[in-house]
Amino acid sequence: MEVVITSLFFLLYLLKLDKKMKWLFWPLADIFNSVIAAVFLLVVCLFAIIIKTNNGTLVGGVFGLVLLVLCIVDAVVLFRKISFGGPRGRNYPAR
Question: So what's the pLDDT on residue 69?
Answer without folding.
Answer: 92
